[in-house]
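#struct-help
A.M.: can someone run this one for me? Single chain, 299 residues.
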Amino acid sequence: MNSTRIAVTPGRFHGGLKLDGHRKLATGKPIASLPLSERYYLWLEQHHGPAALPCVAVGDRILGGQIVAAQEGRPGTAIHSPTSGIVADFQDLPAPTAQMSSAHMLVIESDGEDRACREFGAITDWENAAPESLTERIAQSGIVGLGGAVFATGAKIGRAAANVTLILNGAECEPYISCDDGLMRERADSIITGARILLRALGSKDCLVAIERDKPEAIAAMETAIRDAGDERLRLERIFSLYPAGGERQLIEALTGRQVPRGGLPQDIGLVCLNVGTAAAVGRAVCRGQPLTSRITTV
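D.P.: on it. C-alpha cells below:
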C-alpha cells in the first residue's frame, strides 16, 4: 500500500492575524455551475503582461475553447472563448481592477448551445512527454496563476531552473473565500495530476502541497489523492491558520525558513510557487485538451 508523506510545518513567518474564516456558508454546499449568460465580456488584458491581440472580428461565429485573442510572439497568454456564439463588439468599459479606469473588452453574444471545439488534443502519455511540449501546451491553453497574480504559467515554468522545488499553495487564508477549499475537497485528483505534470515540465523532484490546518476535509481529500497517485515526490504540509499565510512570501518562509530576496522571485532561491487551482487547470489542459475558460469562485 502506498503511504502519504504528511508533515506539520512548525515554521512561521513574522506577524500574522488569527481571523474568523466565515466560510461555512459556502463550504456547506457542493460546487455549482452558473447558467449560460446571454453576453460575455472578455477583458483582453486579464493577465500580467501586454493585452492580447484579437484574432477574430465582429460578426465571426466562434466555438467554446476557440482562441479569440493571442500574443503573437509577445510575453503573455492567449484568451479562449468560454462558449459558442457570435463576436458582437469590441468596447472600452470600466475595468474590473482599481489599477485601470477602463479596459478593452471583446463582447461575445452566446447562441445558447455551448458548443465547443478542440484547438488541441489530449496528451495521454504525459508521463513520457518532453518537458518542452508540456510547457508549450500550458502556454497554448491560456493558463495563468489563479491565486491572484495572473502571471502566464507557461512563461513562469519556461524560465525556471532545473530541479526547483514546486510549492502548491492551498492555504487560502482570507476570510469568506473558499474556492480553493472546495476545489481540494471535490477535485483533489485533478490537482495532484496537474502537480505531477508540472513536476515533469519543470524537471523537479519535490512538490510541497501546503494547506492550512483549519481545512480538515481538504486535507483528507488531498491526502487520499496523493496516496492514490503513489508518487513519492509529493508531500502534504499542514501549516498554521494565520493571515496572510497564503501570501507567496509568507508561505515560503513558513515552509522552508527562507525569505525571498527583496525585489527577487521564488526562483532565486530554487522554488516555484503555484496555486492549487492553477495545477488543476494544467491537468485539464494536458489530459483533456481543455483551455482555461472558467474557474471556481466564492459568491
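A.M.: thanks! The chain has a mean pLDDT of 90.
D.P.: also worth noting: The domain at 5-31+122-288 is CATH 3.40.50.11540 (Rossmann fold).
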